[in-house]
Amino acid sequence: MLLQESENLELKVSTSELKEAVISICAMLNKQQRGVLYFGVKNNGSVIGQAVSEKTLRDISRSIAEHLEPKVYPVISKIALAGRQCVKLEFSGQTTPYFAYGRAYIRVSDEDRRLSAKELENIILEKHRKNLSWDAEPQKKAKLSDLSVAKLKRFVALAGLSYKSPENSLEKLGLLAEKHLLNTAVLLFGKEPVKFFPNARLRCAMFGGKDSAVIVDRQEYSGDIFYLIAQAQDYILKNIHLGMRVQGLYREDVPEITPEAFREAIINAFCHRDYREYDAVSIAVFKDRVEIRSPGGLYGGLTIAQIKKESVSRRRNELLAEMFFRIRYVEKWGRGISLILAREPAARFKEIAGLFVSVFPRQHAARQIKPIQKTAQKIAQKTAQKIIAIIQRSNSVTTREIAAKLNLSVRTIAYALQELKKSGRLVRIGGDKGGYWKTLTKSKKEPN
């Protein structure tokens, strides 16, 4: 086998080139974070051999220890190539930048080039950025078996990629580091992400007034990030008013807050939150507004005025944002706030106690659909007793199943269920999964 110099392979004639060898090790570490070097081989690949003794190996080890920073501990071995004795060094390290004899070098093809001050500054900045990036950190406790292959396959299909194996797909997506799953992989595709991240949760609450004094309903969800986004959307839709309008021959439900607007805010909350904070993303539904709260304020020195006026963004979780972009959940142009305001001009944003909060007023929308809302109320009143009867027959029945039985929309039934809860005739025990309904009073039969 003829050896050939490359970005991670260097050939030296003998240990008389030991200083140059240390520089080559430094350059390869700064470029590839690993490499191999041989003594006793010409740079054209011809093996000429090298006298190797215990002292030879000690001198190599000592020179690397004294003249290379940060410290590297290579594997140094005496080997035979083409029947001649040679020395082989294998090394790796992640603590860039590395310095040889007080200077930094980088590998360019098969050459070692000294780094400029600007290039060195960029390496240092990139290192700190990666060190601060939670989403790109390896989750060394997680294994491939902790991921859902079905979730990964769905994502790969949505991203327009071909699926061969979990390892291959994760490699293509950049979600593996030295065979360790990155945090983003576990958050997106984990069977139970909460086992590794206690804050991989969503907290939701509905309040009876304009403050948090009276809690009408409270739910908590855990799961992968796509599941949590879906639950957040459903919770808001279930707990805001629904009007109706006629579209051609069909009746169409009209939420008082545009779903596209609060969906964008929910996605932003999960995409840009600070995952080092123990707190969870939360949804708070008040009588006059809906708030979507995300742990961690704006990132990179941005202000609320800037994100509203300039349409710029700085991403705290670049890798997670890249995954969302691949399946068109977000854009790369920082237009999320503009899209929200285009659909809900009265929406506002604030930072408080380390939270970024998106606020969607309900009152103006409720006034606009008031006549429509009365229609919804009439339907809810007419179907109330039918819903109670269905629940009494099967208290684990779902909203969708009730809607199918009564030939009404899911949103209309969700509104009716909410009205029954508000009136004290119905209560939900437990969450959407595994929970059940309980009727509190027997009502007089209402007209069909």
What can you see in these coordinates?
This protein folds into 4 domains: 9-127, Methyltransferase, Cobalt-precorrin-4 Transmethylase, Domain 2 (2-Layer Sandwich), CATH 3.30.950; 135-192, no CATH class; 201-363, Heat Shock Protein 90; 369-439, Winged helix-like DNA-binding domain superfamily/Winged helix DNA-binding domain (Arc Repressor Mutant, subunit A), CATH 1.10.10.10. Helix 14 (399-406) packs across helix 15 (410-422). By secondary structure, it is of the alpha+beta class. A hairpin with a 2-residue loop joins strand 17 and strand 18 (355-361). The chain has helices spanning 18-32, 54-67, 117-132, 149-158, 166-173, 183-189, 225-239, 259-272, 304-309, 318-326, 336-343, 363-368, 370-393, 399-406, 410-422; strands spanning 9-12, 34-39, 68-69, 75-81, 84-92, 99-100, 103-108, 111-114, 176-177, 180-181, 201-207, 215-222, 242-247, 250-255, 281-285, 289-295, 348-352, 355-361, 426-429, 436-439. The strands form 6 sheets. It has a 6-stranded mixed sheet. It has a 4-stranded mixed sheet with strand order 1-2-5-4, covered by helices on one side. A 4-stranded antiparallel sheet has the order 3-6-7-8. It is elongated, with a radius of gyration of 31 Å.
**CATH architecture designation of the largest domain:** 2-Layer Sandwich
**Largest sheet composition:** 6 strands, mixed
The CATH topology annotation of the largest domain reads as Heat Shock Protein 90
Number of helices: 15
By helix and strand content, what is the structural category?
A: alpha+beta
Computed Rg:
31 Å
Measured by DSSP, the beta-strand proportion falls in 15-25%
Helix content: 25-40%
> Which stretches of 5+ consecutive residues score pLDDT under 50?
364-372, 443-448
- How many E-type strands? 20
Please state how the strands of the largest beta sheet are arranged side by side.
12-11-15-16-18-17
